């Protein structure tokens, strides 16, 4: 494996993969798997290019906040770049885009400002402009920024030509969003071989290009309708896309149904082992239409813009359940052991059971006493334990300051302090389980007792008696803080 000085050096050089089971047998249909970029999408290329172009021109000052309107992938790429380079990032995004994208952005340190879904892509762009002008942020302007197209001419297109080699490329198939990939790749492919067809796919219910109607200045396109392909076809034809069309770089526009996009994204996973998003399924639908009428032996390249992981809250995963279905249950029941569908008394893991000892360790006793004196809310926990994490979540949601002692953490590893603390805790609390929580020096119990105390109001009373502030107005169902497999509905599993 190569060694890199920065995660940004790993962007690009994504693989071209020939489809074996979905393509017509006499046509070489290849997919450009952009999920191999470090943040999982083709937009990583543009994110780096836009920031570095702005640095070179002086448009972006050191430490200045970057802002952009995005359906998610551009923002995620920008969040990576900004994190590495030290720029704060604000992203504006319509509320209709998937929850996974928001969480990824925030995990990477970006701030996410949602805009009304009814305002579509135009609304999130207008909000980004408004915030940039008000606060002096650097606006990336991905829909018109030539750096967006340039990076695809310099990298994506060259990679395709290098990978295809001496074989003539019959067609290249892509969707369009900002138009950067379309403009940047198509001009290089056309220059290399004017016979290469550039095919642009778009939603069949939102034929912005297929309608032939011009883009109204500063308004939504009259043919736009909401569609399933996130990142594809905003409610306007971007300047970069308009430039590509004006230069005659697109030979054909293929409409794609949303259901076809979903079906082919699933087929890619189940028949080719390639995990792509909805837009990848949509682009493949158009590429298959091209391949079926291509001459035998032709080479067709299809863009797969991103990974399917950020679509789990969308219709792409409809019908994909968390629980075992009947077929899986039948398979489980085909052998007698380790049945997930039978109630059973499951012994606690050995690591959570305190072994009886004749004499408690004096140092461990002093440690517990000192810890209870240091903080008004104390939790003796295990770093890996889901119940401990659920308790932490409740404390955090309520704004309760607390001290955690992790019995399996580095601080308790020396001289097996963690192991010596467990018998002390078991003797004092009357329970061998972890976590054990104390408020004001008095033992409350474990995760279950904490949740029960929140529900019946006694937790609030104990906190108030100790002068501990918390969010008394919070409406929290504590059971929902547990992982799904620990939820009470699984109690007999």
How would you explain this protein's 3D organization?
By secondary structure, this protein is of the alpha/beta class. Strands 1-2-10-7-8-9 form a six-stranded mixed β-sheet, sandwiched between helices. A four-stranded parallel β-sheet has the order 5-4-3-6, with helices on both faces. The protein has a four-stranded mixed β-sheet with strand order 12-11-13-14. Helix 2 links the parallel strand 3 and strand 4. It is built from 15 helices and 14 strands. Helix 6 runs parallel beside helix 7, helix 8 packs across helix 9 and helix 12 runs parallel beside helix 14. The chain has three domains: 179 residues, Rossmann fold (3-Layer(aba) Sandwich); 97 residues, 3-Layer(aba) Sandwich (Rossmann fold); 141 residues, Glutaredoxin (3-Layer(aba) Sandwich), CATH 3.40.30.10.
Overall mean confidence score, pLDDT = 92
Number of helices: 15
Write the H/E string, N to C.
EEHEHEHEHEHEHEHEHHEHHEHEHEEHH
According to CATH, what is the topology of the largest domain?
Rossmann fold
Count the E strands: 14
Portion of residues within helices: 25-40%
Strand order of the largest sheet: 1-2-10-7-8-9
Rg measurement, Å: 28 Å
Q: Quickly give the structural class.
A: alpha/beta
Number of structural units classed as domains: 3
Overall form: elongated
The percentage of residues in β strands lies in 5-15%
Catalogue the unreliable spans. 344-358, 488-493
End-to-end distance: 44 Å
Task: Examine the secondary-structure arrangement and name the CATH architecture of the largest domain.
Answer: 3-Layer(aba) Sandwich
Which class of the largest domain in CATH terms? Alpha Beta
Describe the largest sheet: 6 strands, mixed
């Amino acid at each position: 494996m190569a060694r890199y000085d920065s995660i940004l050096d790993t962007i690009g050089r994504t693989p071209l993969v020939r489809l074996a089971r979905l393509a017509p047998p006499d046509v070489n249909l290849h997919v450009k798997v952009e999920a191999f970029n470090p943040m999982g999408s083709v937009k990583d290329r543009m994110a780096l290019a836009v920031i570095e172009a702005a640095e070179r021109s002086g448009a972006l000052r050191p430490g200045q906040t970057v802002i952009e309107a995005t359906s998610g992938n551009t923002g995620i790429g920008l969040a990576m770049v900004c994190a590495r380079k030290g720029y704060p990032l604000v992203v504006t995004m319509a509320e209709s885009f998937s929850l996974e994208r928001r969480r990824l952005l925030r995990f990477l340190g970006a701030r996410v400002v949602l805009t009304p879904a009814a305002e579509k892509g135009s609304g999130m762009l207008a909000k980004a402009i408004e915030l940039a002008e008000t606060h002096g942020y650097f606006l990336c302007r991905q829909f018109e920024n030539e750096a967006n197209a340039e990076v695809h001419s310099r990298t994506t297109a060259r990679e395709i030509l290098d990978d295809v080699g001496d074989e003539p490329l019959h067609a290249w198939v892509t969707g369009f969003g900002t138009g950067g990939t379309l403009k940047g790749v198509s001009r290089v492919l056309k220059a290399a071989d004017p016979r290469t067809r550039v095919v642009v796919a778009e939603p069949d219910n939102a034929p912005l290009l297929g309608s032939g109607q011009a883009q109204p200045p500063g308004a939504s396109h009259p043919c736009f309708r909401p569609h399933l392909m996130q990142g594809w076809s905003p409610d306007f034809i971007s300047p970069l896309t308009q430039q590509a069309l004006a230069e005659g770089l697109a030979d054909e526009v293929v409409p794609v149904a949303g259901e076809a996009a979903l079906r082919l994204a699933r087929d890619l996973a189940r028949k080719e082992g390639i995990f792509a998003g909805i837009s990848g399924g949509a682009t493949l639908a158009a590429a298959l239409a091209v391949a079926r009428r291509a001459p035998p032996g032709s080479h067709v390249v299809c863009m797969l813009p991103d990974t399917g992981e950020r679509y789990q809250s969308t219709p792409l995963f409809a019908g994909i359940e968390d629980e075992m279905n009947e077929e899986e249950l039948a398979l489980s029941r085909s052998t007698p052991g380790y049945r997930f569908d039978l109630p059973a008394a499951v012994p606690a893991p050995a690591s959570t059971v305190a072994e009886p000892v004749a004499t408690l360790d004096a140092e461990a006793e002093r440690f517990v006493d000192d810890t209870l004196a240091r903080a008004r809310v104390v939790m003796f926990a295990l770093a890996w334990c889901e119940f401990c994490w659920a308790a932490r979540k409740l404390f955090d949601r309520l704004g309760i300051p607390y001290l955690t002692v992790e019995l399996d953490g580095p601080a308790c590893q020396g001289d097996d302090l963690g192991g010596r603390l467990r018998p002390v805790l078991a003797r004092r609390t009357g329970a061998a389980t972890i976590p054990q929580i104390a408020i004001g020096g008095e033992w409350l119990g474990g995760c279950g007792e904490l949740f029960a105390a929140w529900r019946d109001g006694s937790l609030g009373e104990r906190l108030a008696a100790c002068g501990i502030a918390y969010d008394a107005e919070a409406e929290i169902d504590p059971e929902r803080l547990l992982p799904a497999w620990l939820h009470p509905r699984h109690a007999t599993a």
